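call fold(seq) -> tokens
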Amino acid sequence: MAAVKSAGGKKLVIVESPTKMKSIQGYLGDGYEVLSSVGHIRDLADKKDIPAELKKTSVGKYSIDIENGFTPLYVESERGKKTVAELKRALKNADELLLATDEDREGEAIAWHLLEALKPKVPVKRMVFHEITKDAIRAAVDNTRELDLALVDAQETRRILDRLYGWDVSDVTRRKVGQGTSAGRVQSAATRLVVDRERERMAFVSASYWDVEALAASGQEPFATRLARLDGAPLARGTDFDDAGQLKKAVVVLTESQARELATAIETRGDATVTAVEAKPGTRSPKPPFTTSTLQQEAGRKLSMSAKHAMGVAQRLYEKGFITYMRTDSTALSTQAVTAARTQAVALYGDKAVPVNPRSYRNNSKNAQEAHEAIRPSGDAFRTPASVASSLDRDELRLYELIWKRTVASQMSDAKYETTTVTLETEAAGRTAAFTASGTVYTFKGFLEAYEEGRDEKRGDADKSDDQSLPALAVGDVLSLSDVEPKGHATSPKPRYTEASLVKALEEKGIGRPSTFASIIDVIINREYVTKRGQALVPSWLAFSVVRLLEEHFADLVDYDFTAALEDDLDAIARGEQQRVAWLNEFYFGSENHVGLRHILDNLGEIDAREINATKIGDVATLRFGRYGPYLDVPNDDGTTRIVNVPSDLAPDELTPDKARELIDAPIAGDRVLGQNPDNGRDIVVKDGRFGPYLEEVLPADPESEPEPVATEGAPKKRVAKKKVEAPKPRRASLFKSMSPETIDLETALKLFSLPRTVGVDPETQTPITAQNGPYGPYLKKGTDSRSLTSEDQIFDITLEQALEIYAQPKYANRAASFLKEFEADPVSGKPIRIKDGRFGAYVTDGTTNVTIPRGQTADDITFEVAVQMLADKRAKGPAPKRTTRRATTTRKPAAKKK
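ret:
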């Protein structure tokens, strides 16, 4: 359809991301001008932006007027002000405004904020689309709607709720657990899930059991069998035991000696007879197309992508027009998508690849959001991965292929198979031993030709036999048995959550929104509530302290059902079934059904921070979490306690009472003499202290005392008050985290005593730059300006040139672990161009000039040519003018008269 140019002026279309602008502009033609809001233009005010007269009200604390209908105070950001000014200029020449932000709640809220800020005098329409193709964009223009204020209310309620919850409860966690901790509506529930799983693992009691395996053959290729019954009674499997290590039903539990004796007897017998052959047909159906949640799960299982990384790649694919919108709860496909998937399946796998009738899928999500389409390749004819490979980077191609395969497979025929189970019996040691073997053969692969869903680790997997092919057998056949081996097993606790299984658990419980799961997991990792061990999420003792505090004093707020009910209520607001202000009043001030956050906070009483940060490890010791990490508080016989440090890489479920005793009884690494300091001849020893291992320079045991003055003969004796001489303190130095008290040597110790190390002098200011270690890690210091280093090794290795490069970057830029992307040298500066992650987001730098990447774009959107141009533009503008602060003399106003 050709673009129609309006008579009076252009139609202004505002999208969220700059990446979409060019494509959409091309699809719409000259009658339209497409600009970007670059995400949000305004948000709840920072404290510095709150008017003085409101500082002492609830607005001053939350940027929300709680007493007057929970009215938020919104302020445009500095970038937002520039964006709004540009959009207003464009709006002057437009005869219609099309708000084309994303079609979810957040997109609806951004559209509303644009409306509030721009105050347009021309007609306004809401334009939505779920894919960036020519047909979809033209259809969106022809099918506009009004702004959905119920969706805006739901999003605003969510924002206010998270501010009230986060600010009030986080204040308590910071005071009682430690600085840097926080609480949040979804993040706290997610953290509790991980901690609860670890608690289950800590309480788990393993049980051992034995069975016997053998190879059976009838002149053909042997197949594996396993002992299933003994004298007709079933043999124990892992699933027969509970988490306390006790049997749940009557089964035979073989000891090691019994299993070995039986295996020897069976080996001696050497044969078994087929007593049963059972064949069962079965079918498997394909999984539905991807939702946001299932995409994150499969990207984690199959591509080892974190949820955050997967969503970032999906965002790029959507904005480039390769897939449909990636934030959706729907498993539905449009008619054109169903046709495209079926057509492609037939073309690739033949006519039988698809069923007679197209498949449709129902959404089983507890809190399905507004109806979007599932995530799928865009367009009415799907492009194969091979056809788009040249247009995508490695991760984009891998994720596109995953989405393409899943979508095509979702419309394909069921897979058909037949599972055969064979039972063999033999007499040995006076007992009847029954072995079983199973094999599955697919008679029609169906959708498995295209795709098979990954799976998470589950308990009992060890008891399952590997799939194998069985020969044709009949009852009465005698088979030889060989390689008869007793096998010992131990039950295992539930596996730890991975990002994929945590996303699945959150969705199943109805906690949060799938579109927020990636950021939530990112938060709990950055807060050090969990760490990743391979793919597994391991909670820290810090997480245990935070969760215990919340469970004991904010029980409702971390209750899974209550958190899910909040989502239900927010959905009701989105549907217009509940009123925002009434609901917030009930949540904050309480009602007959709910205590209310304000009441909980006002009645907290005394919270014993020491107890909150304590966990009993049997009757051996108490695990405490302090400023410097976890340690064991061990009682001594004389009533005092001893501190024993806990290795930071020891998972909570690994700190058993036996392990605690091992740590307590281990020889103290301290007081090992490393040698003498060549400068003064004093011994240097390594010790184990309250805050970890450290070095100490030993002072002489009995320093020589000064001789008393001798009185002159005949002179009157004067009483001389003895000066109190303060005892000299020995020099000490902490070991780096990467160092061990068992392996540190004298050379390294002397280097630690030499800190802080002078790196050099800043040639511009003539100020020395030093490198040193502190409570929060390694850092550089130049006067009062400090910058973090990425590793302790840099303290000794960093050069002056490297230090100056760090100081040339924005204040917090060097906190990033590494650069996100690197290009060739800039043609002007001759230095390599890098994209780094800073305090205010990703930025392009050559070490001298820095340019922030606009919101809505990512590092992957920036090419070498774009980076060079960004740096050139920034240089052309010149340095930003320095702010000068002029202290004004203020005249104190007289106090207002009391009315």
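The CA atoms of residues 17 and 856 lie 5 Å apart.
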